[in-house]
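Good morning C.,

I know you're traveling, so I'll keep this short. The sequence:
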Amino acid sequence: MLALDSDVCPTSVPSPVAPLNTYTLSELCVETFGGLGSTLVELIKEAAAMRGNKLTHGEYEAEATWSTRKFTPFVMQRISVAIQIAAASEIRQALGMSLALSAA
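The tokens, ready to paste straight into the viewer:
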């Protein structure tokens, strides 16, 4: 996993409701060419450790591909697909194109 420079992507900002609770609001940065912010990398590592880097039965049977038989690659692929779909949607909207293909 590639980590982004912390100057480009701040790792943590104070929560606007911090006096009310103990949460910290953190940015989870993803670069469209595959780079990840250090906060997101650590979150994925923690989640993988909590799950023993294993998928649930449902994830394994219904959602996993041949290359995502463990939790970390599965989550990385899901993040990658979501980011690419979002980027394509932004480009489509910027160009003024609709989702439907024209019949012409």
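Safe travels,
E.
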